[in-house]
Predict the 3D structure of the following.
Amino acid sequence: MLQRGIFWLGCCLGLTVLVSGQACEDVPVHDVTKSFAIEVSQITEKQGKIELDFLWVIDNSASMSGEQYALSKSFGEFVEKLEKYLANIDIRLAVTTTDAITNAGKFMNTPAKDYPPAAFETMKYACLGNEDCVKKYGKGWECKAYPASQMYNLNRSINSFCIFRCASDADCCGEFCFEDECGSDQSCLKDQCSDAPNAGCTFDCKQPGGGMSNSGCLRPPDTKDCPSSLPKFLTMNTLDRFKCNALLEPQQSYQANIEQGLKAAWLALDPVGPNPEQVKSFLRKDAYLVVVFVTDEDDCSIDSRFASPNFTCSEDKDCPGYQGGQAVCKTDMHYSQMSGKQIKLCHGIVKKDYYNSCSLLGDYLGEAHHNCAYDMGCKDCASDDDCGYGWYCKSGKCRPYIYGLPNIATFQNPPGTPIYALTPVAEFYSRLRSLKSDPAKVLVAAIIGDGMPVGEGTKTNKEEPSLISNACMEDAKLKKCQAFKGIKEKAAADCIKDPDTEGCEDYRQAKLECVRECYIASKGDPQSPTMAKNSYICLSPYGQADFGSRYVQIAEMFGPNGRVANLCGEAGIVPALETIAELIIRRVTKICLPMELKEGETLVVTMTKVNKDGSIETIPLVQGDAEEGGDYKIESPTQSCCFPDDKGNCTGTLKAITFNNVLDPEASIEVRYEAQVGGAAE
């Protein structure tokens, strides 16, 4: 039978115990039930002040002006949610850009003053002439057309777009004044704007060069009330200034176009890197570190050991990025041997043409591989089976397929340029974790472009936005699309109509992998290489983006401490921020177990809450992963769960209960250790 009793744990741990009467120094009674309960609102209170150090790595390209605006508008709700569920939080927040060459991880504290014409409001649309745009959007709209043969990329993304030409700010107000409220509902936009007062218009009409021929509407950065002098990072008293740090002046230079978000994050936080004083003043020893990436392109963090023949040099100053320590000029032995004379190359840099093709660049694999990559053959082979995914065997050497994930052969100039240029994501994962003695206190989130909305409650409802072409579905080299093709042939009609339907998880994941692979193939399409830079993986009224594959990788490496949100999701940036807030709340909300489970013991966890009608409900919680229907997990010993000695010093670490969902702050959690004694239970 199960013999039940009480073991006094609570007062030593600051918990509320179900049955009282003993003292902390009482000796445990062996092989009986030990239990305690704690209010959810007290779980974080008992930890004292919860310190959160945020680093936001925000893309500062002109295409991000809309996303930056939405981010600044929604940030207050993000903080409110954290404060609602986490007692006594203390936030520090810094912003850096994805430009690791010029900015090199420095914290940003200069608000944007204006946006360039590249930020004009446009609509992606398959138009061949102005009449197509007028018919779709109304008078004043023009078509930036491509020939019909170049209208679509391999993954069916569209190259042409419509742009509105304006004569005054009032014209822009008439087209875009209620954009936030209407979203994708164009009829709502036109109806509400027909009688809109010009005084409330948040858009300007810009006419670079004068006249309407090149005019356009843009929303200027909302920074008029920002002070001229801002702190390098924000605190609880200055979080309302987030927009002043996060609305960044767009940069379109070579340095900014090579977007290196992962490298920039490390440069901003590396204690012995280029910004040591910044790191010393920002990072707190006991704080959680939360790194958030916000970008519509992939990471292109060039490895410092990589050298491209496109950049010959005589000294360091010949190399873009040398001033920030991101590039150096040195002799390349292999290329010198091939040329028959000494050749110096810039290491740590790639040519500008690659910045739109970062999803095709591979990881730097060491000097030997780097040298053999010049002639595009790195591994001996007898057949294709001897080569990895995306490679085939030719003339005894493994060579990349044009659609292989690591290959950018269509952009190689001169032919043979090494294509394995990026620092492996795993290195950045290890570096970020090294910043904390307890790696469990490092969290990573990414708001990036992806093929389908990511996250519960976001519905696709249509096949059309998936951006999968018939060419991708029929190409034998695209293994993931071939796998999806097989699954689709057997899939239920409900799954094909709406991949988010319950029970369609395998179908949805297979489709998503094909969307991603088709996008990457489109970037390297040999039939239209000049169009590849315009390919995108998602398009919605809330954003257009490339696939942030490397940001997905690092978030997944962090497991339960990582999260990915799609900026092209159904409701834009708002649910993305909510997803990140929930990640933080779940990871901070943990119950330290007072002792290890002994052999023969089981843990029973229940939640009690008061419903709106006043009734009390007790719910048994299930151990396991969320994907398997679990409510909580028991994680390995963490330093935040310290076992103190008589003097309060940590003598060891204990396991903790963490929850897969955000808990109701009004609920309470009961934990019971149940031991089986006297033989089998009766």
